[in-house]
Design a protein that fits this description.
Blueprint (H helix, E strand, L loop, with lengths): L2 E4 L3 E5 L5 E6 L2 E4 L4 E4 L3 H18 L6 E6 L2 E5 L2 E2 L2 E8 L2 H7 L6 E11 L8 E2 L1 H7 L4 H23 L3 E12 L5 E4 L7 E5 L9 H4 L5 H13 L1
Antiparallel strand pairs: 1-2, 2-3, 3-7, 4-5, 6-7, 8-12, 9-10, 9-12, 10-11, 12-13, 12-14
The protein binds uridine-5'-diphosphate (UDP).
The site of uridine-5'-diphosphate (UDP) has 13 residues, from helix 2, strand 12 and strand 14.
């Protein structure tokens, strides 16, 4: 049915409006550049609802996103975007690859957020890029890099308190941006426990995809807990 693209966790379908697409969220999960695969029951439903809630919240706070409406429990209607070929990661606490790259202990808080750009390129394993690399590859102009940085930091300022009020520490997260048919820069893709590190404020328990990546167990329960706190 008009399938435009199938990724690891989502399918994108054409609609009768060429400027809009439907995004379907799957239960499939991958980690380590696709080397580890599994089904997480209910993940697609959680990520649909969480993304709709967070994108709706961001739009209410003046952040342009591709989100239009939630169609059903696994499908969002969104603006069709031409994507910037970068992943933008914002970090508030040390975890994951920042820990392995720097040796700083996991769970170290940072006064100022750390922002990183990664090259969306599976064959290369999505490497970290500096701004000269981005310019060399023609992925974004210095002006666009500055706008991506500013937008990502604004999003962090809106999301951090949203999560904290729900007993969740927003440790780090990944964003993707694109341009709509009119050339407007908008936040695209998703924000969900697949793309964020979310730690319980009291216990430090991991309520995100790290439970799957690190075989911690309780993956489904963690996703349901995020659904309950973020959406209900
Ligand atoms: N992330 C993501 N997709 C990726 C890589 C990272 O959504 O392809 C998210 C990840 O969930 C975390 C943040 O970006 O919230 C930072 O990830 P990190 O660089 O620490 O890599 P990881 O240790 O997750 O491989």
């Amino acid at each position: 049915m008009n399938l435009l693209y199938e990724g690891k966790a989502k399918r994108v379908y054409a609609t009768d409006n060429s400027d809009r697409v439907r995004v379907e969220f799957k239960d499939s999960a991958t980690a380590f550049n696709g080397q580890k695969k599994a089904e997480i029951t209910g993940k697609g439903v959680v990520n649909t609802a969480v993304t709709a809630r967070l994108f709706g919240w961001l739009q209410e706070h003046g952040i342009p996103t591709h989100f239009i409406e939630q169609l059903d429990d696994r499908n969002l209607l969104v603006d069709r975007l031409s994507m910037v070929g970068l992943e933008v990661v914002v970090r508030n606490w040390v975890a994951g690859s920042l820990h392995t790259r720097t040796g700083l202990p996991e769970g170290t808080p940072m006064d100022d957020p750390v922002l990183e750009f990664y090259y969306k390129n599976d064959a290369l394993g999505d490497p970290l890029l500096n701004e000269d690399h981005i310019r060399l590859l023609g992925l974004a102009s210095p002006d666009l890099i500055a706008r991506l940085r500013q937008e990502a930091l604004r999003i962090n300022q809106v999301l951090k308190p949203f999560f904290l009020q729900r007993g969740i520490v927003l440790v780090d997260f990944k964003l993707e941006f694109g341009r709509d048919a009119e050339g407007n820069l908008k936040l695209g893709d998703e924000i969900s426990p697949d793309t964020c590190r979310l730690w319980d404020r009291e216990s430090g328990e991991r309520l995100d995809k790290d439970r799957f990546r690190r075989d911690l167990g309780g993956v489904e329960d963690a996703y349901q807990e995020i659904l309950k706190r973020v959406v209900n």
